């Protein structure tokens, strides 16, 4: 019984699925079938003349005889008329839409995809042969052809975006006497799908009133089978709209202005760099100094050295090698643990501020791996280092007058570029949109750089330049070879303070380690210091390394993990849902056709 019931349910589900599927297919077919009709005839009459401004105007009358099926499928047709041609607005204007008896046909319009869509008919179904007579005007339908050098009426007579076959086609194009007098005698007719160069017959006749008429006709045509004519006139016959006329200011102005803006930004950048370099230049100080001054902890020195990094790890090592604290490395994957040792060894106020920050309540501090609170505290200490550098007269805020002037010039140039591009866009020029985008993007970019270069920057004072030179001497010493370092230590002044192979020698190398980290040289200085420990048979009392990594390899690991913790910020993620030289279809006009 249960099995029979299951079979019934499955049978009902199958029937229901079939009914729903049939309904969906029927609805889809109904939507698609509105284009399933044909045109018994497509006829058009073009009358082309000039207005008072010398610009071309076309008066067009299309007679479209649709052949609809006898069943309820269509309520009318949709005729799409082009609204732009080679960058110019055609000012397409519908004059009337009637049937074969001259009675008005109801219609509505909408703009879509560069076309003026005419939706002809009412909500009532139409059957059999139905005639629509569409009368409209367009302006600026003739162009100044670049290849021939002549003016041309280069026009698509049939819509290439159409699904309907045509049983009979004919078109006449009549030019006013004024235009007829400027015909060059060159004309062509092309047919086929878009891009086809297959020729068709174009008959020419001079009418008694001085007008000239061109005619072309054919029998059945398949969907998307176009017909295009190209008729030549003497160059300069027609006045082209401003959007098509060359205009160096509108076409090239934004790019020229942006080029000038880039140049002034570069000048501002050069002025900024010269100011910074000049501020770091110190007077000659005689023999190079390799000892580490007590009043230049890494948190202060970081603001003197361009591109300095890992200031906080360097500060921790600085306190450790001076005996104020001890570093414990638990293992390769853990962050360091800091232990207070002898806080009296921290004589500089900045050093004391660091100890107070982390050891005010507990003699041990484990550096967290991901703590915004810890990162915020490190940021506060970094600012304290900058404030101390200012108070001690090592750095100051300075602005380059030339860079500042370059900023204002760049800002003005960018504004001009955007204004010209906006004007070109409002005039409808074809290349205006790319120019506007370039002006906005490039303009904002160069202005941002100009703002940076022209702003006040932290630079060394003359006293700071001496400290900067001292740090550069340290860099040279750290990067040198063993022989170079030995020779420098034997100079008259340095030899009195430090003898190679002595305990003082090791202490010097230890105290240079924080600055090697600050300067990004810990990978090269670690082996040198390790060798000094071995040669003097001294230990490393400031660090407990339980990571099983050799000292030189442990240093970069310590620096990376500590710096990562000091600069930690929580990651955020989000998702959201958020592209003769002529041819059929090569001219203006044509538009589209379909059913409704």
Task: Describe this structure as you would to a colleague.
The chain has 596 residues and is an alpha+beta fold. It has 3 domains: 38-245, tricorn interacting facor f3 domain (Immunoglobulin-like, Sandwich), CATH 2.60.40.1730; 285-399 and 458-566, no CATH class; 401-455. It is 40% helix and 24% strand. It is built from 15 helices and 26 strands. The strands form 6 sheets. It has a 7-stranded mixed β-sheet. Strands 10, 11, 14, 15, 18 and 25 form a 6-stranded mixed β-sheet that branches. The chain has a 5-stranded mixed β-sheet with strand order 7-8-3-26-12, with no helix packed on it. A hairpin with a 2-residue loop joins β4 and β5. The longest helix has 33 residues, at 248-280. Residues 23-32, 492-498 and 572-579 have low confidence and may be disordered.
Derived from helix and strand composition plus strand pairing, the structural class reads alpha+beta
In one word, what is the shape?
elongated
State the end-to-end distance: 54 Å
Largest sheet: 7 strands, mixed
Beta-strand percentage range: 15-25%
The mean pLDDT is: 81
* Number of extended strands: 26
What count of domains describes the coordinates?
A: 3
Radius of gyration: 42 Å
Helix content: 40-55%
Order of strands, main sheet, comes to 6-9-2-1-13-17-16
Low-confidence spans: 23-32, 492-498, 572-579
Quaternary class: single chain
Number of helices: 15
């Amino acid at each position: 019984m249960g099995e029979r019931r299951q079979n019934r349910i499955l049978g009902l589900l199958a029937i229901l699925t079939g009914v729903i599927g049939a309904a969906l297919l029927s609805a889809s077919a109904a939507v698609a079938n509105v284009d399933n009709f044909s045109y018994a005839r497509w006829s058009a009459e073009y009358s082309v003349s000039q207005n008072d401004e010398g610009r071309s105007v076309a008066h067009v009358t299309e007679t479209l005889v649709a052949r609809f099926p006898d069943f309820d499928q269509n309520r009318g047709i949709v005729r799409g008329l082009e609204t732009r041609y080679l960058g110019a607005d055609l000012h397409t204007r519908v004059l009337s839409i009637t049937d074969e008896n001259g009675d008005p046909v109801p219609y509505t319009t909408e703009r879509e995809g560069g076309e003026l869509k005419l939706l002809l008919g009412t909500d009532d179904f139409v059957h059999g042969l139905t005639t629509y007579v569409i009368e409209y005007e367009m302006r600026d339908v003739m162009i100044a052809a670049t290849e021939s050098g002549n003016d041309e009426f280069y026009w698509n007579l049939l819509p290439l975006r159409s699904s309907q076959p045509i049983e009979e086609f004919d078109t006449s194009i009549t030019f006013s006497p004024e235009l007829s007098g400027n015909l060059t005698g060159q004309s062509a007719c092309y047919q086929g799908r878009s891009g086809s160069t297959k020729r068709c017959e174009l008959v020419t006749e001079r009418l008694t009133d001085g007008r000239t008429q061109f005619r072309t006709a054919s029998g059945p045509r398949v969907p998307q089978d176009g017909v295009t004519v190209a008729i030549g006139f003497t160059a300069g016959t027609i006045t082209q709209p401003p959007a098509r006329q060359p205009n160096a200011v509108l076409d090239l102005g934004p790019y020229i202005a942006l080029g000038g803006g880039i140049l002034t930004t570069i000048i501002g950048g050069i002025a900024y760099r010269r100011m910074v370099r000049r501020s770091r230049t110190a007077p000659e100080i005689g023999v190079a100094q390799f000892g580490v001054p007590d009043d230049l902890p890494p948190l202060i020195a970081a603001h003197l050295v361009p591109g300095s990094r890992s200031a906080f790890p360097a500060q921790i090592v600085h306190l450790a090698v001076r005996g104020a604290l001890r570093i414990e490395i638990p293992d390769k994957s853990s962050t360091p643990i800091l232990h207070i040792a002898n806080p009296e060894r921290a004589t500089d106020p900045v050093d004391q501020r660091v100890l107070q920050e982390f050891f005010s309540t507990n003699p041990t501090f484990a550096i967290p791996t991901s703590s915004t609170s810890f990162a915020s505290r490190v940021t506060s200490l970094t600012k304290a280092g900058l404030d101390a550098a200012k108070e001690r007269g090592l750095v100051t805020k300075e602005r380059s007058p030339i860079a500042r002037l370059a900023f204002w010039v760049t800002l003005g140039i960018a504004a001009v570029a955007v204004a010209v591009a906006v004007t070109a866009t409002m005039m409808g020029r074809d290349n205006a949109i790319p120019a506007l985008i370039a002006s906005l993007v490039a303009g904002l970019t160069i202005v941002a750089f100009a703002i940076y270069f022209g702003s006040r920057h932290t630079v060394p004072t003359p006293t700071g330049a001496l400290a900067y030179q001292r740090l550069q001497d340290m860099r040279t010493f750290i990067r040198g070879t063993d022989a170079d370092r030995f020779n420098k230590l034997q100079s008259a002044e340095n030899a009195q303070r430090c003898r190679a192979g002595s305990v003082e020698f090791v202490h010097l190398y230890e105290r240079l380690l924080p600055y090697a980290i600050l300067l990004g040289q810990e990978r090269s200085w670690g082996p040198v210091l390790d060798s000094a420990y071995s040669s003097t048979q001294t230990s490393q009392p400031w660090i407990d390394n339980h990571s099983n990594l050799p000292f030189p390899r442990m240093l970069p690991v310590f620096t990376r993990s500590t710096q990562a913790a000091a600069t930690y910020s929580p990651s955020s993620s989000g998702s959201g849902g958020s592209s003769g030289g002529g041819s059929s279809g090569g001219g203006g006009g044509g538009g589209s056709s379909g059913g409704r």
